[in-house]
């Protein structure tokens, strides 16, 4: 009888332990599953937030670089226009100087011819005849 009572007591205790363990599993497993789901959601949200922050920083950097490139392009365009204007002014100045040089040269030649013509008019008649004969 005592052994039977002890076996029965152990059986009841085993059943009780199994029920407690099953109850704990039934309570803990859904709680752990819910916690894992919440934890995974939190990790995903954090990763998405970090990615969004990184994206915004790169976008800001790209916008700054585009603005800088646009400014540099504008400066280069202005420089090219100024350089083109400068080259045109240099060409104009070159043409003016060439024309002036030609004018000075031909002015000297005309003065020299005028002086020679005047000198020829003032020569004695014999000298004139001699120069006319040399020229022919």
Spell out the key features of this protein.
136 residues; mainly alpha; rod-shaped
Helix proportion of residues, in percent?
A: over 70%
User: Hey, roughly how much beta strand do the residues contain?
Assistant: under 5%
How would you describe the shape? rod-shaped
Unreliable sequence segments: none
**What is the CA–CA distance across the termini?**
172 Å
The biggest sheet, with number of strands, parallel, antiparallel or mixed sense and barrel status, is: none
Extended strand count? 0
Structure description:
The protein is mainly α. It has two helices and no strands. The chain starts with a helix and ends with a helix. 0% of the residues are buried. The mean pLDDT is 87.
Layout of secondary structure:
Blueprint: H1 2-121, H2 125-135
In short:
This protein has 136 residues and is mostly helical. It has two helices and no strands.
